[in-house]
Design goal:
Layout: H1 8-36, H2 47-81, H3 87-111, H4 121-152, H5 157-160
Helix pairs in contact: 1-2, 2-3, 3-4
């Protein structure tokens, strides 16, 4: 996507757009999370409940994947364009983000269903507790990602202005 950028200013603008779209997806993820943890009780017998859970898991996987396969790479490339060493920062933050990725993948594997399949009773009963823990993990992840964005992207705003 940003391989055709010829200047660091072009790259910065492209990364800025990429981050904006990614953060919009984060917002959608948060809204879906809140709707899942809202006032209604989840029931796998209610197809709308399961559809909402599946949609949340899909958005979460899309968001996590975009981070790993697009955003972090572009942030690193941008840092290189501005002659900054991102290795130490990434070496500190990336392993923590990876842990949150594994937790999100495990949640997705456990709670995503297909072909009208319903959650088993054990998973349905543990959903609220696991959603709560996942929420804490996601908040931690968002904080780590914001640190990357601030250090590897926002710090260059004055240089391209």
């Amino acid at each position: 996507m940003l391989d055709n950028c010829t200047t660091k200013e072009e790259r910065w603008g492209g990364v800025s757009e990429l981050i904006a779209r990614w953060l919009q997806e984060r917002q959608e993820l948060i809204v879906l999370y809140c709707s899942l943890t809202g006032s209604y009780a989840f029931s796998s017998h209610n197809s709308k409940s399961q559809q909402k859970l599946n949609k949340f898991c899909q958005i979460m996987m899309d968001y996590v994947s975009a981070g790993h396969f697009e955003v972090y790479d572009q942030l690193t490339r941008e840092a290189e364009d501005f002659n900054e060493d991102s290795e130490e920062l990434l070496g500190t933050i990336y392993p923590k983000i990876q842990i949150t990725t594994e937790i999100a993948l495990e949640f997705n594997d456990r709670y995503t269903t297909s072909d009208g399949k319903k959650l088993d009773e054990k998973d349905e009963h543990s959903l609220n507790e696991r959603l709560s823990k996942l929420g804490e993990v996601l908040v931690s992840r968002f904080d780590l990602e914001d640190q990357l964005i601030n250090a590897l992207h926002n710090s260059h705003a004055d240089l391209v202005a």
